[in-house]
Q: What sequence folds into this?
């Protein structure tokens, strides 16, 4: 079964995923209020994805931990940004933090020679690599768009194209 240190790290990471979910939900609400429907759709889809990561992590713990595990705690990441650059920076911060955290889980599992946890964490890292690449492009585009109304429409169309099919 899973070492208790890994159980705690995985439970904490489930909380990080839940916090990212809350951030994306708040940004979806913010974007919808501004009429940025493509951005809102992207954020809603990403919120669902983050909630799925939390569920995958808790399911993994239920399947492999031989002890009760602490329920994940969530940071309150509700955000009303002052523009798309601030919003996209928050997204980038959340995704890169999750990437770093999943790498730390994989490293700790490797040190403890727990192949099941290491493989699970590495699969999550692989997904985060794609997410970080995508949000890096999004942040770059947001910085170009700035606050120009015409550029914002173009940005929103770009964001609509980022929603997974």
A:
């Amino acid at each position: 079964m899973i070492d208790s240190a890994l159980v705690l790290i995985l439970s904490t990471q489930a909380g990080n995923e839940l916090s990212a979910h809350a951030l994306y939900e708040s940004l979806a609400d913010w974007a919808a209020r501004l009429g940025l429907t493509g951005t809102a759709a992207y954020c809603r889809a990403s919120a669902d994805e983050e909630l799925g990561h939390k569920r995958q992590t808790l399911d993994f713990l239920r399947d492999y931990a031989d002890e009760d595990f602490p329920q994940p705690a969530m940071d309150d990441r509700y955000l009303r940004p002052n523009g798309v650059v601030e919003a996209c920076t928050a997204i980038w911060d959340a995704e890169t933090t999750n990437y770093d955290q999943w790498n730390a889980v994989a490293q700790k599992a490797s040190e403890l020679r727990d192949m099941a946890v290491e493989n699970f964490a590495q699969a999550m890292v692989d997904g985060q690599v794609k997410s970080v690449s995508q949000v890096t492009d999004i942040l770059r585009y947001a910085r170009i768009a700035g606050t120009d109304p015409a550029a914002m429409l173009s940005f929103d169309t770009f964001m609509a194209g980022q929603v997974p099919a």
In short: The helical segments are 4-33, 37-64, 84-111, 115-145, 149-160. The chain has five helices and no strands.
